[in-house]
Amino acid sequence: MYTNYLPRCSIGLESPGNCGLTSFCTCQDPQILGRNTLEHITVNPDGAFTVDLVLGCGKKSEFALTDLHGLTKTVAKHKVEKAALVLEGLETDFIEGFLTGVLADLAVDNRFKKDGKHDYDLKDVLVFHSDKDVEHTEERSKVFASAMHLTKELVTSPPNYATTTSVANFLETHFKGLGLEFKVLEKDECERLGMGAYLAVSQGSAHPPKFLHATYKGEGPIKKKIAFVGKGIMFDAGGYNVKNATTLIHLMKFDMGGMATVFGAAEAIAKLKPKHVEVHFISATCENMVDANSYRPGDIVTASNGKTIEVINTDCEGRMTLADALCYADNLDVDMILDIATLTGTQIVALGQRYSGFYASNEEVADLFAKAAKLSGEFSWRMPLAKEYKAALKSGVADLANCNYRADAHAIFAALFLQEFVNKPWVHVDFAGPAFERSSGRGTGHHVRTLVNLVLALSGEQLSL
């Protein structure tokens, strides 16, 4: 079901002095400086180096990793077979991000088309830079790009292919091949652990719940332990608070974007092998469907920490599954927990399609995540865990309500709800906007690099964080 369509291109290092494009790096021609400007130029009089496509990036002082996506999309549009990247003077992490973007953005996934062929393949990338460790940078870039593509393929897969069982089987085989520990908790084990919130969501589906847990243990003494928890709703019909066409129900295959991101990061970490860290990758996967057995508005369920939840809205299912997944992670001997989810539509209203919103229980973990996101070129904005809104969580008949129609700031409400199920230092990431492209119907791989760079920082192996 999953096939890596990354460009099989070679990446080579050249001295900046060998590039006839060097003069363009210092030119002041506004047409060249303009972003995504296209020119067809023969650089050298003897024609030794012919350029078919030049992309202007604007002023160096104003250009950031977050601008790379548009550049690589332009390259793909023009189907360039050879790319020359003049990156002299840029930091190694920027070069790594650039190469990752080129490989990830140019990958073509045609698994579900008749011929199944990818219609474009970048063949060669020449990097003009004096960095002698380009081979290391190249390998890391390929690891990042492959991990992002795994995430994109999972998110893009239709729900009749990406079921709880098929994904669990694939990930178990894939990760055991990479040396990770992997276990699947079946329904009876989840019942034994008291996961009443998670299992309530799952009970209307023909596909059984599968609680997934992969573990990476680095070499040497373990200095830091972290758990990543991803929302894994394989398809979200909304339950009895059913979605409709105006809520883009056909796109609800993307509601497992958090799970896909967490396990994409797991692939990269397994390949990069950072030392002195232990990382847990967790997802409570299921579907939220409409059936005679579905949970109902008005039901009261008990999460695995003993707290009772009144179900006000069955379409607020992500926080229900995450509640038990966070309790599970909280019972592990970890120093920090991060959950990531396509959780609320109001997060998109607040920050749009490009930015995730993140919430943090303390400044240390907030700073760690913010720096990792910045280094990765992936937009995120800190949101408040506003205690002023906690009263909205109250239920007249249970410990908590999963929704409050009278409350404002529903994304903050959801974050405050999740905080009730975690005691460790914690970050919650709501990336309902950037997890997928609505125009193409495909996943983006957003925040895979952020999670990996965060782990590398904890291991002490990240260069610039």
From TrEMBL:
<dbReference type="Pfam" id="PF00883">
    <property type="entry name" value="Peptidase_M17"/>
</dbReference>
<dbReference type="GO" id="GO:0006508">
    <property type="term" value="P:proteolysis"/>
</dbReference>
<keyword id="KW-0031">Aminopeptidase</keyword>
<dbReference type="GO" id="GO:0070006">
    <property type="term" value="F:metalloaminopeptidase activity"/>
</dbReference>
<dbReference type="InterPro" id="IPR011356">
    <property type="entry name" value="Leucine_aapep/pepB"/>
</dbReference>
<dbReference type="GO" id="GO:0005737">
    <property type="term" value="C:cytoplasm"/>
</dbReference>
<comment type="similarity">
    <text>Belongs to the peptidase M17 family.</text>
</comment>
<dbReference type="InterPro" id="IPR000819">
    <property type="entry name" value="Peptidase_M17_C"/>
</dbReference>
<feature type="domain" description="Cytosol aminopeptidase">
    <location>
        <begin position="150"/>
        <end position="452"/>
    </location>
</feature>
<keyword id="KW-0378">Hydrolase</keyword>
<protein>
    <submittedName>
        <fullName>Leucine aminopeptidase, putative</fullName>
        <ecNumber>3.4.11.1</ecNumber>
    </submittedName>
</protein>
<dbReference type="GO" id="GO:0030145">
    <property type="term" value="F:manganese ion binding"/>
</dbReference>
<keyword id="KW-0645">Protease</keyword>
<dbReference type="InterPro" id="IPR043472">
    <property type="entry name" value="Macro_dom-like"/>
</dbReference>
